Amino acid sequence: MKDLIKRFPRYSKLLYLYPVSYREQYGEQMLQTLADMLDDPQQSRASTWVRISLDFPLSVVKQQVTYTGEAMATTMPSYIKRNAVLGAWLVAPFFLFIILNGILGDRLYHSWFWHTRVLFIWLIVLPSLAVLFNLVSWLRWVQSRRRETKKGTVAILADVRRSWPALAMVVMGVGILGIVFFHDSVHCITGNPIRELHNPSQTWHCVQQR
Hints:
single chain; mainly alpha; 2 domains
């Protein structure tokens, strides 16, 4: 194994892109296969490296997807999955109404979907709940992993395979709120499609005025 690593130092480092369990089980075999292919007099070294270059990325993606799927099925806590699904439902109206409004040529501006109180719910309340539920789930997971593994916080944070759905929902919810509060193209939630929303205090002022 050490001889193969010395012979292919760069390729050996690339193997770290595979999941740990897969690398430990098949890493040496992959290095030996590469050595056998390069030592085969019937194959040119150039064609071997081209083949490896084409196959390697696909293999890494396949194994990472497989490993992530297994982690979701076996080691990912049920509350992570449950709150991620709930978060997806909570942010879905934002994308649904924005897409429908574009398809219908901005007709929803004059419907109850753009009424102040309804806007406030699907623009702010629902994304905020998605962030809250999934942030709590993620923090709970971090604490439980620290107790179980005795690892440092940095190592636990780097292990996102068991918590990525919660993180994805947090990022998505924060992204929606960031757009609503700080992007110049977002309309004020008073329902007027001309006025623009610039900051949270302005948003709350609009709500109070209604």
